[in-house]
């Protein structure tokens, strides 16, 4: 009687462990799919792949401009902000080009180097842009990214999805997939050992 209870408890534990392993594998596959349709296209689409050194030539704040509508946004999301324009000397080619914060900045407003998020306090936006302009004037030389193919003459300060960020995004689903597979393998080994012991 006690032996039957132990066998039943063992089978229940193996079933739960097997479900846990399969669930971890399924979740990791969903995460892989989500990363593949969201982050990977943005990473492969970016042409600013080579890092170089940029030297600031001038950083000017122009008159206020309106943040253009992004796709699917409403009219109330348009707001005015000071337009910061940063021109740098590209060390790789010696050209004078315009600097943008990220790839998204160029798409949102190609006239400005920095596009702030919508803030109700316009003074805060102005102070932030002035701080950014002063930092560019203070730190004249810094790393930036350019397009080695020459399709884009502008440069960006940082990539939205760098190589390290992409690897980090794939790290967690990989660990979950490995852990799930390990659990399944251990359960199968346990079942095999149980059957072998029963035969003996």
Task: Describe the protein in words.
The protein has 200 residues and is α+β, with helices and mostly antiparallel strands. It contains four helices and five strands. It has a five-stranded mixed sheet with strand order 4-1-2-3-5. α1 (2-45) packs antiparallel against α4 (163-199). The protein is elongated.
Count of distinct strands? 5
Poorly predicted runs are 69-76
- Summed over residues and divided by their number, the pLDDT gives a mean of 81
Helix content estimate: 40-55%
Supply the number of helical segments: 4
Strand content is 15-25%
Q: Please tell me what the overall shape is.
A: elongated
Largest sheet, strands/sense/barrel: 5 strands, mixed
Oligomer: single chain
Rg computed from alpha carbons, rounded to a whole number of angstroms: 27 Å
Helix-and-strand structural type: alpha+beta
- SSE pattern, N- to C-terminal: HEEEHHEEH
Tell me the layout of helices and strands.
Elements: H1 2-45, E1 50-66, E2 80-90, E3 96-100, H2 103-108, H3 122-138, E4 141-146, E5 155-156, H4 163-199
Parallel strand pairs: 3-5
Antiparallel strand pairs: 1-2, 1-4, 2-3
Helix pairs in contact: 1-4
Keywords: Glycoprotein, Ion channel, Ion transport, Membrane, Transmembrane, Transmembrane helix, Transport
Transmembrane segments: 20-43, 166-187
InterPro entries: K_chnl_Ca-activ_BK_bsu
């Amino acid at each position: 009687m006690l032996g039957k209870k132990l066998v039943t408890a063992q089978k229940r534990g193996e079933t739960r462990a097997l479900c846990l392993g399969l669930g971890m594998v399924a979740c990791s596959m969903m995460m892989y799919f989500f990363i593949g349709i969201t982050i990977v296209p943005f990473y492969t689409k970016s042409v600013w792949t080579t890092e170089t050194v940029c030297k600031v030539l001038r950083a000017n704040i122009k008159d206020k401009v309106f943040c253009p509508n992004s796709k699917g946004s409403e009219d109330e999301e348009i707001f005015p902000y000071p337009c910061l324009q940063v021109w740098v000397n590209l060390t790789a080619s010696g050209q004078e080009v315009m600097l943008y914060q990220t790839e998204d900045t160029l798409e949102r407003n190609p006239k400005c180097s920095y596009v702030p998020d919508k803030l109700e306090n316009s003074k805060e936006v102005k102070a932030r842009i002035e701080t950014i302009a002063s930092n560019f004037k203070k730190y004249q030389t810094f790393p930036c990214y350019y397009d080695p193919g020459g399709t884009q003459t502008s440069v960006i300060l940082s990539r939205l999805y760098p190589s390290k960020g992409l690897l980090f995004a794939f790290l967690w689903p990989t660990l979950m997939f490995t852990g799930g597979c390990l659990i399944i393998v251990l359960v199968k080994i346990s079942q095999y050992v149980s059957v072998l012991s029963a035969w003996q």
